[in-house]
What we know:
Pfam families: TENA_THI-4 (PF03070). There is one protein chain. The chain is built from 22 helices and ten strands. By secondary structure, it is of the alpha/beta class. The protein has two domains: 10-240, Heme oxygenase-like (Heme Oxygenase, Chain A); 258-288 and 300-558, Rossmann fold, CATH 3.40.50.1000. It has a seven-stranded parallel β-sheet with strand order 4-3-1-7-8-10-9, with helices on both faces. A three-stranded antiparallel β-sheet has the order 2-6-5. Helix 19 links the parallel strand 7 (474-480) and strand 8. The longest helix is centred in the N-terminal third of the chain and has 30 residues, at 140-169. The two termini are 20 Å apart.
Amino acid sequence: MGGMDVGGGIAGKLWNKFRSESVFVNYTPFFVCLAAGNLSADSFHHYISQHVHLLNAFAHAYELAEECADDDEDKKAIRNLRKYIQAKLKSHDSLVREWGFELPEERSLTNATVKYTDFLSATASGRIEGERVPGKLATPFEKTKVAAYTLGAIAPCMRLFAFINKEIQALLDPNDSTHIYKKWIDHYCSENFEAYAFRIEELLDTLSISLTGEELDVIEKLYHQSMRLEVDFFSSQPIIQEAVVPLSRTLDPAVGGELSIFCDFDLTCTAFDSSAILAEIAIITRPKADPDGSETQLARISSADLRSTWDALSAQYTEEFEQCVESITTTKTAGTFSYEGLCEALEQFAHFEKAANSRVVQSGVLKGLNQEDIKRAGQRLILQDGCKGFIQKIMKNENPTAAIHVLSYCWCGDLIRSALSSAGDVKALNVHSNELSCEDSTTTGEIIKKLESPMEKLQAFNNILNNRDKDGQHLTVYIGGSVGDLLCLLEADIGIVMGSSPTLRRLGEQFGISFVPLFSGLVAKQREVVEVGSSNWKRLSGTLYTVSSWDEIHAFILGSSS
């Protein structure tokens, strides 16, 4: 998701902190269908009818905030913000017609709209959960504080709206006059609306200058709560047409619909490579001499020597990996997608990975690790933001149509299970990886090798699919970010590349693979739904989808995180 500079005050800091949650609005059926240009008129009319209630709530909140502001300039600034909303309400009917739509019938408020408007009203009235505000705002400071709280509750809505519509506008052809929502999108991408959003943030910064740390924490809480209410508001918009999101809801469990989710572990789930972590455990826990003065065979190798050995192995791995990539990418780039050419190239990686693992075993680096130390290290392993929450929802069976499998080159399945244990019952987690051989809870230094190459990963992937029920509707998603994931990414119905590995992209493009941002890919698929009549996810199409966060994956597959 693209960046947007909103200044260095509290408004900018809060937007930067919570901006990632914008994906849960972007990936709603409402916005995906709207971006595709085929959102039904009835759904848009429903949204417009609810949006009017929100505009009225904003106008009322500004009115109360103006009463609370102590400084005349601040009062004037808030009054101008209120006038903008009032003018918008007055011209609302003509704007809707200008956008090319009939005026919707008045509709009752939905639960999500009621929650949002009640939140704005309560905040502007000084009724803030967990915050002691006198029943009667006696002092100017108490009043100014409530004015700041109110702006903190309003600011994220306007910034979010400007941001998302710019994301959508970037996907549209400026010369395409057939997109029925283009005028509406352009309206919220206009300099006028951007300036309005910025004025709110600027005023929030001004009103917050004299607040204490605790009071700034209240603003942060209100800002985040407003973001969540905005997500709920758009998630609750009724869609009467077929939509490609959330993916899990496109499968019907009543007719055997099943979603199989596969993911890599290192640098997909984690922020660090697990091989370095296992080596660090070995170095740190290297046994000392026995109490009777004798030395074990392991103790004869000092921690310093072990670190030198590991550093040499790592340097050799990196050097040979780069040489392997160079030898492949110096050949002529394929004009079209070449699966056979890619498979031949990946054979080189298979030989390289297996030779590297053999060197690690021969070095004895992995000998003498205690299983409990490995499990403790796994529990402290840092996961990518959003990964735990996504896996947690799958493992808790909140969506009975989905199951998750981890396919990894990692040397130790126990490390993976421990790292993901906080997400739920590890028995429900399907881990397919190598294992460290153990005797009496201590590693022997040998690796029980199961997955060492892209081809072995693909074989494990296919074995899992072959064992599932043949009847019903099945979809597979593979999430990965390394060269070893390429074959599985292509074999899955939907291959999602996590992060921006330059090597994976370079190798993929060498053999004609296209990398498409997931959101723009979904908008294209949504157009297919109308034009073709269904969203057929084709395997081995040579197209992979890219994301920068697990929140995008969560929003695409499961919908809102709340």
